[in-house]
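Notes to self after the Tuesday call (sharing in case useful).
The group wants a holo model before anyone commits to mutagenesis around the pocket. I volunteered. Ligand is magnesium ion. Logging inputs and output together so the record is complete.
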Amino acid sequence: MEFRIGQGYDVHRIEEGLPMWLAGVQVPCDRGFVAHSDGDVAIHALCDALLGAAALGDIGKLFPDTSDEWKDADSKELLRIVMERVREKGWEVSNVDVTIALQSPKIGSLVPRMRDVIASVMDIEKDQVSVKATTTEKLGFVGRGEGCECWAVALLHR
Ligand code: MG
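Result:
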């Protein structure tokens, strides 16, 4: 069996009055992410990890933010398309692991739903999907509440 590993990283700025979508779940909050799409920074990092593992480029090349087609796009749809590309190359997902750094609100209670949603969109099992949430102890741009930072790792096999 062949294995490939990929990592992804994304950041979005936080502003008042926008919806906050994270790992496919809407976070109850009066602030959200500035973005061309719905700004789901966790799914964007995950897409880049999958594309990286399959050496298929990156999310910016696949879904250019200059294109109206992806304006306000549901990032779950982007993830679905990424999975199609990955499977077209014969790859299956072994597991994915996502880390979300957000100072507030606390999102720990939403993690089980995030895992359900991601597993369903990717058509894999929930135990193949890990989502972890952390703060940065009020340090840096995440700690000041100016943005959210996400990392993801994906392992593929065929
Ligand atoms: Mg992004």
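Two things stood out.
The chain is about 30% helix and 30% strand.
The pocket of magnesium ion is lined by residues 10, 12, 35, 41, 44 (CB under 6 Å).
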